[in-house]
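S1.2 Input.
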Amino acid sequence: MTGAGFGGCTVSIVKDECIDSFIKNVSEAYLAKIGYKADFYVLSIGDGPAKLD
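S1.3 Output.
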């Protein structure tokens, strides 16, 4: 869990091939429990810090 808002948020590490099912399952459970739609942001890992020229 992260954030201090009303619903908070999670940072979830999910295998690429499981992202769609993860979003589907969490969306359904969240809607049933909380009563409104969850938002998802799918990101990828970058190369990390680098020196700018």
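S1.4 Remarks. The longest helix spans residues 19-34.
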